[in-house]
Amino acid sequence: METAGIYIHIPFCISKCPYCSFTSFTPEKIPEKEYINAILKEIETRCRETDIPDIGTVYFGGGTPSLISPGGISAILSAIAENFKLTNPETTIEVNPGTVDLEKLKGYRNAGITRLSIGVQSFNDRLLVNLGRSHSRKDALNTLESAGKAGFDNTGIDLIHSIEGESLQDWEDDLKEAVSLHPEHISAYNLTIEEGTPFHHSQEKGLLYLPQEEEQTEMLLTTIEILCSAGYEHYEVSNYAMPGFRSQHNQIYWNGGDYLGIGVSAHSYIRKGWGIRRANSSNLTEYLNLINNKGTAVVDEEILSKEKAMGEAVFLGLRMMEGIVLNDFESRFGTGIETAFTNAVEELRTEGFLIYDKDNLKLTRKGLLFYNDVAIRFV
Question: Please, are residues 180 and 193 in contact by the beta-carbon 8 Å criterion?
Answer without folding.
Answer: no
